[in-house]
What we know:
With about 375 residues, the protein is of the alpha/beta class.
Amino acid sequence: MKQRLKLGKISGIPLYMHWTFPLLILYFVYDGLSRGMDAVGLMWLVGFILTIFVCVILHELGHSLSARWYGIDTEDITLLPIGGVARLRSMPRKPWREIVVALMGPAVNVVIAAGLFGYFWLSSKSLFQGVPEEGDELIINATNFLPLLFFTNTFLVIFNMIPAFPMDGGRVLRGLLAIRFSRVRATQIASILGRICAVGFAVWSFVSGSPVLMLIAFFVYFTATQEYQSVQTEEALREKNVRDAMRTQFTLIPAETNLDNVVPYITTTAEQGFLVVENTEYGTDLKGGITRPTIIRAIKQHKGQESFFQKYISRRPKKKGFFMHELMSDKVRYLTPDMPLPMVYQEMIQMQIPVMPVRENNELVGVLDYYQVREFVKLNS
């Protein structure tokens, strides 16, 4: 999701286009050329696809603006080949509010379809004019542009309301289940049904030969799993603070320690995150943090045990040296024991700071690292 082009803002919400989105346009252009379509036909085809995605943007705005009504902001909206994704900072905890936010997206498509239907009814034009019958080639032109746009929006409403979590219908289902069950249990049931639907999409993709449907199947399956894990984490950390999860026994590694001398630090303790410090004439200066996996990976590289993936495929930047100050993350974020743990965990992920020092009354009293929070989640789930 990081490889995106910013298109602008709508109602203060950043709008992005994922780098794979133009591939969809190229696919349809290639398909049109292979069917002997001329330049005018290609222009109508591309224009129709772009118009559909304008409807998709409006669909995502329906979610975003209804969430804003409940005080929830939207990080951004991203256009993908399979549709749009609005990243809300959180979902409403109250079931009926989640149901409303989930329904507002398809409601936009209902309004668009209703507007088009009203136009055809008032103009006495046929809603099926120029619409290809089953087996006929799809050719977009001025005659069938609006009828096909009507049927596409109708299809988007029906498809999005399939109870495949995290699609809109799945979120409505989760909201309804949350009225009776706990949020975690409701998400678990909706996630299982979502993954079952994803398998159905995959089978349908093989039968129909639709590559886009296969992408949707993968998206639904993995996102359903990820969202269930996210809700588990959210509930486990709810109303917890840093003091509940921090370590008060911790190891400080000098910045000038090299890999030959760092081994005792990781063999004599089970800590997953270490603070890297530098001794100065004024005392100990905190320089950053380093994790056990980073140290072990560096030791393997140092001993020539780098895997084929790490050597030729991995995009992780190569480290220049083998001292702690060269391997560590130099991002430092001081915490206090009373800070909310969910907020801190989100900062760890978003700011990519795996180890954070905890300070109270200007004294270092503990350490919190990403792996430690994950263990805390498992114990409290």
